[in-house]
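Thread: "does anyone have the structure for this chain?"

Original post by V.I.:
We have the sequence but no experimental structure in hand. Need at least a predicted one for the grant figures.
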Amino acid sequence: MRKYLNINKLSQPYSKQIAILIGLFHSFRLLTGAVGALFFLKRGLSLKDLALLQIVFSSTSLIINYPTGLLSDIYSNRACVLSACIFMSAYYFLCIFAPNMTILMLAHFLQAIGLSLMMGASSSWMFSWCVDEQQENKNYINYLGHLENEIQSIGGIISGVLGAILSFIFQENGYVYVFLITSTLMIPLFFKLMCIPKVQTKKQKEVNIFSFTKFSLKNNFCDKKIILFFAATALITALYQPVFHFWQPFFKDFGVSQAINDNVLLGLCFALFSLTKYFFNSYIRLKIIKDKKIKIFKLSIILTMMLFCIFLTLAIPFKSFILCCFLFCLLHGSLSIVSKIINDQYLKDSHELNVASTISLAEVLGRLFSLGVLWFIYFTINTIGINGIFFCSSIICIFLLLVLNLWKKTHNKQGVVNA
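Reply from O.Q.:
Generated one for you, tokens below.
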């Protein structure tokens, strides 16, 4: 971990420093990811309360995601990233006041703002520095994306183990400390990011927000590559839904928890998934920077084909815990790489003026498509079960393969190398 934190060297470009710090931001978030729901339930919240908080978060995200992207493009991506750290610090601090639902709803409102500010702005800021630094390797942006994923995975490993230990040793007070620690960690991260200057771009000092929004939307929906980026983002976001929401009940059904505490088992599984994600991204990151001729799109297509096979296998109702755990490890590793490739391949050919708003709009479209998938799951899960949901995911993989192939052909027609 020390090699990632050593970002004060003059040899480290600003783009790499940003990638490392954003990776740490998401890594810190994962500290509460494995224990958050359990903490709220132990504090007296019901599943209905948790659903209401998720509604507050999701509704706010849908409304505010694109406007925050526009703010980043028009005014300052750096300021949006810095603000995100403050909002997220406030969110984690306010969570310790559970079960006060009024404060928790405010906390989730702030969380939605913080994540919306961070998503598009962080990629835009990093991309702007890549352009300013005139990196010779066109795949350098992919290298940074996988570096960010690699660091985030370390947070997943720590959070999985930490969640298992807390659930086994401590009561709810142990969880309070995790939220306080996460809130505190956002502050030094804020100051570290503050040391990185804003890129001096060619943007006009005074921009009419309505004119810019019109320009951004026209640019997005008149460009075939961006439309394919939107489609790929929506599909990969939908693929994450069964993995995010149903992996815990899927593994609890194996009956292994009769010998091991549920929370310890799930915490260790989460750590194992994150460890696989770390090794996948570490290998690809080093491969990309050493081999300038690597075919990025070809790699994403191969991994998507593997995702198809994994989801199809998980659709078979067998009872091998070890095999399913192995498949989920491959699932997390492959999904993390494909999702990063989709984001970074857009960045490599994007227009610097509206990077953040385009990524934010892709996030909105992805959330809307995911909501449709979740509604489908809601109405069919009692009939087809979790295994049936995985079969539906394999069908989504087929559509993602078609989109990636079409995107690859579009690049080849335009003479883009390393497609």
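V.I.: this helps a lot. The chain has 14 helices and no strands.
O.Q.: and Residues 344 and 408 are 14 Å apart (CA to CA).
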